[in-house]
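Put briefly, the fold is written as integer tokens. The lines below illustrate.
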Amino acid sequence: MKSFEYTITDPVGIHARPAGLLVKEIKNFAGTTVTIVKGEKAVNALKLMALMQMGIKKGDTITVQVEGANEDSVAAAIEAFLKANL
């Protein structure tokens, strides 16, 4: 498993639009499971509603866990996506 931390910089946090884009991005990586962790909560990043219900706001630090095929390249792609969008 590969994991990294990211601090949200978007003023509104993870809301509908960026959450939807994140789910769409992760769907490109078949055979890989991506989990978003904030505090005690952990959700599969493909679950849009669960992701939005985490209440991730600006300044929150999340941990992204990538498990499966091509973990290193998938983690790098997701990290680049987060930096560009959140």
Summary: The first strand starts at residue 2 and ends at 7.
